[in-house]
Amino acid sequence: MTTGGNNFAFDARVSYNFEKTAYGIPEMSKIRASAELDGVDRAMLRLLQDDGALSNATLGEKLSLSVTPCWRRRKRLEDEGVITGYQANLDRRALGMNVFAFVQVTFNMHSDQDSDHFEEVMRRHDEVTSCHKITGAADYILQVVAADLDAYAEFVERVLRKQAGVSSIQSSLALREVKFSSRVPVPGA
Prior knowledge:
Layout: E1 2-9, E2 14-21, E3 26-33, H1 39-50, H2 56-63, H3 67-79, E4 99-107, H4 112-124, E5 128-133, E6 140-146, H5 149-160, E7 166-173
Antiparallel strand pairs: 1-2, 2-3, 4-6, 4-7, 5-6
Helix pairs in contact: 2-3
């Protein structure tokens, strides 16, 4: 029994179609390829992950392509949703964000309305750098940054504890960052 569906793209080559069951738990029902990548595409993706500000001229030079074919490939990868944007990676500590917390949030009841509202609230708060609906005991896992423990505690009280249906909030504070990357492995690389 399903109550509706959502499509989620997880990587450059595969998208997943989830149907919500009667209990609100996603069920993977279909997997399909969404983009075919050749060797030049994969090399382009690796280069752009290293430096998203590369001009088409420089990128084309590194790939042995002229500017126009390079632009066309890049544009196709953007249009197909393989490349979703470009950003500068910032050091949170240099900006005074010294606390990094992994937060598990559990709901006492699973209503679409509460989940949708919670997800919208998480999208609006810059302190939340990542929010994922997960399997297991908790319903969501968040990554939250804050200037200090007082600011983090204030965020928990002001934002998380006020969400309808939340029954449990468990925080784990990062003691040391061993690895952090927004890079995605490029298939076939």
